[in-house]
């Protein structure tokens, strides 16, 4: 036993854990971080970065092919091997020396191994060689252990060695045929990526494509995937899976069999809490960790949970936003300073509920923030929905010949502020932050008329949306 004390112990060195530790050290406290795999977490090696690298080259090629003058310069096809090599670079070749060095430079102590809470403010770390180190926290323990892929209980699935997002993101070769179970964000992006790389892709989307987004988003992504040769089977449900020799056979509810070389399961996530000692704090192992506005686990005053593991929003940027709030509130509570946990306060993660931005890097891209029209109505708001054809904007016509896209703004009619925006179209990702600022700032519609978009940019859609809404 080797007792060591820190002000704060963070379990999990993904993007969220790293940012919590950095924030508390900047606030004058000491911090240790516990990591059982790679410093940088899912995002750096198997999620955000490598998947976007898999998507980017095909997106650039599509863009240039839609631009007369430039398209003539393209004489060959995509080189999948070169894309995979670039992906390897973005995954740092699955080595974390760079990020571990950053932790050291930030004054954060790294303990490698599996962390488990064993008593109040006590974390045991079991290393790869089974040695156990006991850490104690003077002020707080923060769980930032993230999530893993959810696998459904389908007969034959586990024996068929399915891909999860990890195997897809780190694929060493491109399968000739890929079947994807699911229709959410991972399924949409992976279908786009692997069809771009040359796989014959079949998407078995029981609940549709991007069902949580505005309906036009899923419709446009479905149409584009089909145009790219992807077989999108809306409503298709898998009942059994079998791997015979090399091929995987998926049986659907109507008895039809879909054959592929690999099957990717992308139906959501489970929290990494099964072996974390949650029973010692009266929680059930394997459950999501429910937290209050300051990301503190309800009823346990020294325990916090940030990032994917608290299920508020499963996105890196939002988890890092939570990390800044958690780090700062721990420092405030440790020093007896005032806690600002009211809406939009320094220590409250208010944006998690009102203004979460997300870009889905499909073709076309889907960029959204805040509420969809349906979600706003469910929340009891009186809303007005304003739609505009993004392809009709001068900047979009210049951007690409035959540019097709759509924009929607959802306005809370009682407060006359925007509560949701969705853009669908090529390269709409960079349009999103203006919408986020308008929603977080609760900028009145009447004032937005004074925010003039430059001509001729795609951002002129903002003016067109306001014109469609009307000026009294
Ligand atoms: C395929 C895919 C693509 C994605 N793309 C995007 C994107 O483009 N943009 C975006 O914003 N989000 C994206 N996400 C979501 C994003 O990856 C997560 O929101 C983010 O990684 C969450 O960060 P985290 O720090 O909470 O958890 P993680 O990144 O999962 O990190 C948790 C860390 O904790 C460690 N750990 C777990 N348990 C223990 C333990 N008991 N002891 C010690 N260490 C432990 C793990 O090894 C891991 O390193 C994507 C997700 C997937 C699956
Ligand atoms: N660009 C990005 O921001 C990005 C990219 C990838 C992943 N992510 C994040 O990662 C998280 C996980 O993504 P995901 O796609 O796994 O989850 P998801 O929640 O986005 O989608 C899962 C989909 O699977 C469907 N589903 C659920 N159970 C099913 C079943 N038994 N059979 C068939 N379909 C079923 C659901 O209806 C849903 O549409 C998301 O929350 C997302 O925010 C973000």
From TrEMBL:
Cofactor annotation: FAD
Protein name from the UniProt record: Pyridine nucleotide-disulfide oxidoreductase
Cofactor note: Binds 1 FAD per subunit.
Binding-site list for NAD(+): 182-189, 268
Family the entry assigns: Belongs to the class-I pyridine nucleotide-disulfide oxidoreductase family.
Gene Ontology annotations of biological process type: 2-oxoglutarate metabolic process
UniProt: FAD binding residues: 52, 115, 308
Recorded GO MF terms: dihydrolipoyl dehydrogenase (NADH) activity; flavin adenine dinucleotide binding
UniProt source species: Actinoplanes awajinensis subsp. mycoplanecinus
Disulfide bond annotation, renumbered to this chain: 43-48
Top-level lineage group: Bacteria
Residues annotated as domain Pyridine nucleotide-disulphide oxidoreductase dimerisation: 356-462
Keyword annotations: FAD, Flavoprotein, NAD, Nucleotide-binding
Domain FAD/NAD(P)-binding: 6-320
């Amino acid at each position: 036993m080797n007792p060591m004390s820190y002000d704060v112990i963070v379990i999990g060195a993904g993007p969220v854990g790293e940012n919590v530790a950095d924030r508390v050290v900047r606030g004058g406290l000491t911090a240790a971080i516990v990591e059982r795999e790679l410093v940088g977490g899912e995002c750096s090696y198997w999620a955000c970065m490598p998947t976007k690298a898999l998507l980017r080259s095909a997106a650039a090629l599509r863009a240039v092919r839609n631009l007369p003058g430039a398209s003539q310069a393209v004489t060959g096809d995509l080189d999948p091997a070169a894309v995979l090599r670039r992906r390897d670079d973005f995954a740092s070749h699955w080595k974390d020396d760079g990020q571990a060095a950053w932790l050291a430079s930030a004054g954060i102590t790294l303990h490698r191994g599996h962390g488990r809470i064993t008593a109040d403010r006590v974390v045991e770390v079991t290393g790869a060689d089974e040695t156990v180190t006991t850490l104690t926290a003077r002020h707080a323990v923060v769980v930032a252990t993230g999530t893993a892929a959810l696998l459904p209980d389908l007969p034959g699935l586990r024996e068929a060695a399915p891909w999860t997002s990890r195997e897809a993101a780190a694929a060493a070769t491109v399968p000739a045929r890929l079947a994807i179970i699911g229709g959410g964000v991972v399924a949409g992006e992976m279908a786009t990526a692997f069809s771009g790389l040359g796989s014959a892709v079949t998407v078995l989307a029981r609940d549709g494509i991007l069902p949580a987004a505005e309906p036009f988003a899923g419709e446009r992504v479905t149409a584009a995937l089909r145009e790219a040769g992807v077989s999108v089977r809306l409503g298709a449900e898998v009942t059994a899976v079998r791997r015979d020799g090399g091929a995987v056979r998926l049986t659907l509810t109507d008895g039809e069999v879909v054959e592929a070389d690999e099957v990717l399961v992308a139906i959501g996530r489970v929290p990494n809490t099964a072996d974390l000692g949650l029973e010692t704090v009266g929680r059930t192992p394997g459950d999501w960790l429910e937290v209050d506005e300051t990301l503190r686990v309800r009823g346990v005053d020294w325990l916090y949970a940030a990032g994917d593991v608290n299920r508020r929003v499963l996105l890196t940027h939002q988890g890092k936003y939570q990390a800044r709030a958690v780090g700062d509130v721990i420092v405030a509570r440790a020093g007896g300073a005032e806690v600002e946990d009211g809406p939009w306060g320094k220590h409250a993660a208010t944006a998690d509920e009102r203004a979460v931005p997300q870009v889905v890097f499909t073709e076309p891209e889907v960029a959204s923030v805040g509420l969809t029209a349906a979600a706003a109505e469910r929340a009891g708001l009186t809303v007005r929905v304003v739609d505009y054809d993004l392809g009709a904007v001068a900047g979009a016509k210049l951007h690409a010949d035959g540019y097709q896209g759509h924009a929607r703004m959802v306005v809370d009619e009682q407060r006359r502020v925007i509560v949701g925006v969705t853009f669908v179209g090529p390269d709409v990702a960079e349009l999103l932050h203006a919408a986020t600022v308008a929603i977080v700032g609760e900028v009145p519609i009447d004032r937005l008329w004074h925010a003039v978009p430059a001509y001729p940019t795609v951002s002129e859609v903002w003016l067109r949306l306001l014109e469609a809404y009307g000026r009294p």
